[in-house]
């Protein structure tokens, strides 16, 4: 789809400046890579003018959330490592059996029983609760778990686990372990401090987003975003610049924003709301669907 046009209340303006306000309680990356979401937001805003600020608002627990896409990469790496270790163990067992067979020509009954026991143990064995790999005994499973899945939790069965809100805020059981390097959406390399987890706060900071950490309170995110927009309106009123058309881009869902969007219009500030498809914030000058934004299915 094509992006909508915005009104130009300030007809004498020769430039356009954009301020982005992001309510993460209403518009969360969820299963999307937050780096890509940030890139889409920046591209959307840049379509209309020069982006002067991008502020994201969320409570502290939400900022600790480790993105699903990062956890999937860890799970894939753990499965690949477990498969490699299992293959190496099987090769070692085969070599031991071949060595035993070559030294006992004609086959010793006890040796054959031992080989059969190993084969039976490998076939039945014990299963890793994280990646599903099988091992011949508890000791090998313990070593595997310590070396491959340190800090990981057993995989949940389909249909288990909490809801979306729990996934967004609970990171006590989610860890990537030690992260030695990290790249943002521009390919820039970062080395996280020792013990730093790639939570949503760290990820957005590396994308140039102004992170606002809020206390846990009812409607605290929407109230803080509204206060941020009102503060920006007051700054513009105190220092009028008739050569600049100002635009507020709001990523949110709550109808509580209707009044502040109306105040923007009254002050000559154009507004673009990114919200759920089919449920537009009616006081905004134009809207773009959230799924359209995060999927990148729009033409700038």
Characterization of this structure:
The protein is α/β, with parallel strands linked by helices and 300 residues long. The protein is built from ten helices and ten strands. It has helices at 34-48, 60-63, 68-103, 109-124, 138-148, 164-169, 200-205, 220-238, 258-266, 290-295, and strands at 15-23, 50-59, 126-127, 134-135, 182-183, 189-190, 210-214, 244-251, 270-275, 286-289. Strands 7-2-1-8-9-10 form a six-stranded parallel β-sheet. A two-stranded antiparallel ribbon has the order 3-4. The chain has a two-stranded antiparallel ribbon with strand order 5-6. Helix 1 (34-48) links the parallel strand 1 (15-23) and strand 2 (50-59). Helix 3 packs antiparallel against helix 4.
List keywords for this structure.
300 residues, alpha/beta, six-stranded parallel sheet, two-stranded antiparallel sheet, elongated
Radius of gyration: 28 Å
| Low-confidence regions | 107-123, 151-164
Distance between the termini: 9 Å
The strands making up the biggest β-sheet line up spatially as 7-2-1-8-9-10
Q: Helical content, roughly?
A: 40-55%
Structural class by secondary-structure content: alpha/beta
Count of helical stretches? 10
Instruction: List the helices and strands in order.
Output: EHEHHHEEHHEEHEHEHEEH
Strand content: 15-25%
What characterizes the major β-sheet?
A: 6 strands, parallel
Q: How many strands in all?
A: 10
Mean pLDDT: 79
Quick one: overall form? elongated
Summarize the structure.
This protein is of the alpha/beta class and 300 residues long.
């Amino acid at each position: 789809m094509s992006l909508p046009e915005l009104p130009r209340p300030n007809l004498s303006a020769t430039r356009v400046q954009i301020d982005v306000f992001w309510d993460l309680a209403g518009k969360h990356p969820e299963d999307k890579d937050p780096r890509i979401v940030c890139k889409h937001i920046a591209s959307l805003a840049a379509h209309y003018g020069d982006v002067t600020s991008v502020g994201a608002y969320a409570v502290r627990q939400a900022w600790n959330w480790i993105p699903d896409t990062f956890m999937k990469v860890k799970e894939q790496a753990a499965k690949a490592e477990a498969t490699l270790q299992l293959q190496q163990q099987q090769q070692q067992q085969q070599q031991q059996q071949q060595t035993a067979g070559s030294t006992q020509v004609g086959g010793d009954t006890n040796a054959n029983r031992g080989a059969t026991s190993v084969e039976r143990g490998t076939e039945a064995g014990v299963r890793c609760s994280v990646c599903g790999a099988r091992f011949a005994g508890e000791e090998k499973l313990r070593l595997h778990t310590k070396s491959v899945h340190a800090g990981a939790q057993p995989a949940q069965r389909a249909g288990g686990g909490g809801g979306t809100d729990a996934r967004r805020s609970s990171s006590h059981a989610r860890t990537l372990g030690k992260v030695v390097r990290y790249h943002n959406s521009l390919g820039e390399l970062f080395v996280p401090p020792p013990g730093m987890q790639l939570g949503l706060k760290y990820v957005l900071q590396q994308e140039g987003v102004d992170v606002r950490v809020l206390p846990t309170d009812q409607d605290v995110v929407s109230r803080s975003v509204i206060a941020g927009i009102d503060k920006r309106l007051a700054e513009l009123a105190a220092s009028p610049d008739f050569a600049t058309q100002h635009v507020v881009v709001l990523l949110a869902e709550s109808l509580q924003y209707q009044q502040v969007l109306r105040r923007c219009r009254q002050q000559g500030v154009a507004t673009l709301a990114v919200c759920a498809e089919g449920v537009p914030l009616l006081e905004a000058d134009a809207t773009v669907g959230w799924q359209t934004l995060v999927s990148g299915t729009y033409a700038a």
